[in-house]
From TrEMBL:
Species assigned in the record: Mucilaginibacter rigui
CDD domains xref list: PLPDE_III_AR (cd00430)
This protein's name: Alanine racemase
Active site per UniProt: 487 (proton acceptor), 714 (proton acceptor)
EC number(s) reported in the record: 5.1.1.1
Entry keyword set: ATP-binding, Cell cycle, Cell division, Cell shape, Cell wall biogenesis/degradation, Cytoplasm, Isomerase, Ligase, Nucleotide-binding, Peptidoglycan synthesis, Pyridoxal phosphate
UniProt binding sites for substrate: 585, 763
Length: 819
């Protein structure tokens, strides 16, 4: 039941120029040339993103795409391709989606707010899917591009749409409104944070409310819109509140009953109730929004309560973990629609650590497609995404087994059958994507395949890493390249998982400290250029075999490398020249450059790829004069070198803090290190939008009552002021939680409260004063996250964030998330 449009019709809808050489039928909108599954039926939009989409037309053409929306034709001649020429490619995408939306007369819920949009969308989907056929945004595809792509999925089988809209500046909501055309509006939590893209919180709210301008009904929190009463007048409103009683749903009582959250409310002058399986503040508010929406849409209070009590947690993230037998496991057992399957398969392809790619998939429910068409699409997707081994679970997949033409396939009737045979599959050194509908309980499979985790984990959010990368991309002058520093296990965040993400997102260079680090990246599928900062002469052969590029910082290193190259008959090997402009660590000093130039002039064995230097205090105003002096020394040196070489090289001096503070020193490339991981001393935190990438978590192993006169831990340094209780947690100095944090210097977050350490930190454990917190064994404890940042930990013990991050020992498991 896939819909389609003739390209000639699309041309009219988006009001495009250009002529049509072949009137094809389009059913797929393509915005990323790396994600092509159905080239013949795809229409590629050359969108202006961080990079100009027109650069990717050739790639898409090579992959078989013949239909393009562009704002100018490419120079290369592609005689059999249709080019629709428009002034604004994004506007064309939105216009086409809006046109598509208009073909259907269904109820559409439009959701916006500062927080909770995705959860509320997914929960409403869970709550209403028993009787509705629902179409919604995959994951949190709620942007100017994500919304039209989401709305494009609407077809005849649907009778309800649920779409979330996210904006970052003024003028954006009108465009999303035109695409979604919501009939029912839902406003989620409104934060008070002052966003970069808006003058004031009021402006932000007014912009968001534009989503509802044509809604016949609006569901909202009374307090949030107290100052916006005029904007509400013309429509049917359903308000809720936990404070005021002159509303449609007045929640007047909230208590916790055996781990659940029990709410009572007044609705139509009657008392109603609702039990929620979660009790954190965000979940409670999101659930009230859902409760109000159900009532507003005519569900009975009894149905609403019944269904809300069974709400399942929403996890939009893919988890990447180390598995048994050297496997990598990508766990995505929450969603199993075809869109999210595609997203997960893209992630599978992005992680290149193992040659072999395996998919464990369950039957898919509620796709809005006929089963034949659905499994044909699944099989096609599995083939185009280069899955090597397919493991299907469920009777429908069994029935359609013959569609899957892959080297290895296995089918099982249910999860229990697969679990019984799991050992016989000999899963080894492969990347395994686990994806199943909730009822299949695939978490059992993931538990069986994932290495048993020591309960202290470092979680790395790859989306945040990407948004930090984009933050810096946005601050570079046009054409400036990025070298991402992934030395020291990517500042403790892991090696190839991070590198794969950076490679996929087209960073220009990677840098590691030692040859071995580079070799490991090569062995895990990293093919992009890699510079080695400290290449040891003993490792030159490994370096060359793995196409790693050495930094040459002294005459002896230079001589040894040239001798090695000579011996191996290598010519023009790419190297990088390091200038010491003031750090006085390694590098050629200004007075040595002339001699270096003499050597370079007559040398055929190497080719200088770049010349660089390192700033010692790019973030510190008091050293700005010194920084300027460094820049000057560097300029003199690279000019001399380029003169001697007779060709130009890539020049770079800036590290993270230099990027924003010294824009004139960006030259051809910047070396982005700690900023990627969310820390930058030069950028004020509020305005930067940088987010910490890592969360360090542990768990409570025991809770003890301790009297005021007793002592805690080694050498009896710790005690409580009054009788109280302590929690022992599974992290110690061997994990990287240094002894300096002991005796109240360090703090951890226990169930939302910051509590101090007591006594000395021991090797594998330490103790926290939890006298004033409700805790039990097994509770999660946060060492650092976006609330208690690495910067604060660094301050507590008088060090720098770099050291906190890189100290986290390798025995702490890394888990990666991708949303
Ligand atoms: C580590 C390193 C960087 C990155 O520094 P950040 O402050 O983390 O951005 C840049 N250049 C060199 C030579 C480095 O060793």
């Amino acid at each position: 039941m896939q819909h389609s449009y003739a390209i000639s019709d699309i041309k009219q809808v988006i009001n495009a120029g250009g002529n049509i050489v072949d009137d094809t039928i389009i059913n797929t909108l393509l915005t990323d040339s790396r994600r092509i599954n159905n080239p013949a039926g795809s229409l590629f939009f050359a969108l202006d993103g961080r990079r100009d989409g027109h650069e990717f037309i050739a790639d898409a053409y090579t992959a078989g795409v013949r239909n393009f929306v562009v704002n100018h034709r490419p120079d290369t001649i592609m005689p059999d391709a249709n080019f629709l020429v428009v002034a604004d490619v994004l506007a064309a995408l939105q216009a086409l989606a809006a046109h598509h939306r208009k073909q259907f007369n269904l109820d559409v819920i439009g959701i916006t707010g500062s927080n909770g949009k995705t959860i509320v969308k997914e929960w409403l989907y869970q709550l209403m899917s028993p009787e509705k056929s629902i179409v919604r945004n995959p994951k949190s595809y709620n942007s100017q591009i994500g919304v039209p792509v989401s709305v494009w999925q609407v077809n005849e089988t649907h009778n309800l749409g649920i779409f979330e809209a996210g904006i970052s500046t003024t003028g954006e909501m009108d465009k999303l409104e035109a695409v979604i055309q919501p009939t029912i509006g839902v406003l989620t939590h409104i934060g008070t944070a002052h966003d970069e893209g808006f003058e004031s919180p009021e402006e932000k709210l007014s912009e968001k409310l534009k989503l509802f301008k044509n809604c016949k009904q609006l569901i909202y929190n009374y307090e949030a819109l107290i100052d916006h009463k005029d904007e509400l007048k013309t429509r049917e409103c359903f308000s809720w509140s936990r404070k005021f009683n002159q509303v449609d749903l007045y929640v007047f009582s909230e208590t916790t009953i055996s781990g659940k959250y029990y709410m009572r409310a007044m609705y139509k002058e009657k008392e109603i109730e609702c039990l929620l399986p979660y009790r954190d503040e965000a979940s409670v508010e999101n659930a009230i929004v859902c409760w109000a929406t159900m009532l507003a849409m005519g569900y009975s209070p009894v149905d609403a309560d019944d269904r809300i009590e069974r709400l399942a947690a929403v996890s939009m993230r893919l988890e990447l973990k180390h598995g048994i037998n050297d496997c990598s496991i990508i766990d995505d057992s929450y969603n199993s629609d075809i869109q999210s399957l595609e997203i997960a398969l893209n992630f599978l392809n992005q992680q290149n650590q193992h040659q072999k790619k395996t998919l464990i998939l369950s039957d898919i429910y509620q796709s809005g497609l006929q089963r034949d068409a659905l499994y044909k699409q699944v099989a096609q997707l599995v083939t185009t995404k280069h899955v090597d081994r397919f493991i299907g679970v469920g009777t429908s997949l069994q029935e359609y087994a013959s569609l899957f033409n892959l080297p290895q396939t296995h089918f099982y009737a249910d999860t229990a059958a697969l679990l019984k045979e799991l050992g016989k599959l000999h899963l080894q050194e492969e990347t395994i994507l686990i994806k199943g509908s909730r009822s299949f309980e695939f978490e059992k499979i993931s538990r069986a395949l994932v290495q048993k985790a020591h309960e202290t984990v470092l979680e790395i959010n790859l989306n945040t890493l990407l948004s930090n990368l984009n933050f810096y991309k946005g601050r570079l002058k046009p054409g400036v390249k990025i070298m991402a520093m992934v030395k020291a296990f990517s500042y403790g965040s892991g090696t190839f998982e991070v590198a794969n993400m950076l490679q996929y997102n087209k960073v220009d260079y990677l840098a590691v400290a030692y040859t071995d680090e580079g070799v490991e990246l090569r062995e895990n599928g990293i093919t992009m250029p890699i510079m080695v900062l400290n290449p040891e002469p003993e490792s030159y052969d490994k370096l060359v075999v793995n196409k790693l590029e050495p930094a040459i910082y002294s005459f002896s290193l230079f001589d040894e490398f040239v001798k090695f190259a000579q011996g191996e008959d290598i010519i023009n090997y790419p190297v990088h020249i390091k200038i010491d402009s003031g750090m006085h660590r390694v590098g050629f000093e200004a007075f040595e450059v002339e001699t270096l130039c003499d050597l370079l002039e007559i040398n055929q064995y190497i080719r200088v790829q770049s010349v660089y230097s390192h700033l010692v205090a790019s973030d510190a105003e008091q050293h700005d004069m010194f920084t300027m002096q460094q820049i000057k020394i560097f300029e003199t040196a690279y000019k001399q070198i380029e003169d001697a070489l007779g060709y130009t090289v890539i020049k770079h001096i800036s590290n993270t803090s230099g990027i924003t503070r010294w824009p004139n020193a960006q030259y051809d490339m910047v070396r982005l290190g700690i900023g990627l991981y969310g820390v930058d001393a030069a950028v004020p935190r509020e305005e930067s939008g940088l987010q910490p990438v890592a969360t360090l978590k542990t768990t409570i192993s025991q809770v003890k009552k301790v009297a005021a006169n007793e002592t805690i831990s080694y050498n009896r340094n710790g005690s409580l002021k009054t009788d109280g209780k302590i929690a022992t947690v599974r992290i110690g100095y061997a994990d990287g939680y240094l002894r300096a944090f002991g005796n109240g210097v360090g703090r951890m977050l226990v169930n939302g409260t910051l509590v101090p350490t007591v006594g000395n930190i021991t090797m594998d454990m330490c103790m926290l004063d939890v006298s004033n917190v409700e805790v039990k064994e097994g509770d999660e404890v946060i060492v650092f996250n976006e609330q208690q940042r690495i910067e604060e930990l660094a301050l507590q013990i008088g060090t720098i964030p770099y050291e906190i991050l890189t100290n986290i020992s390798q025995r702490v498991k890394r888990v990666y998330f991708y949303e």
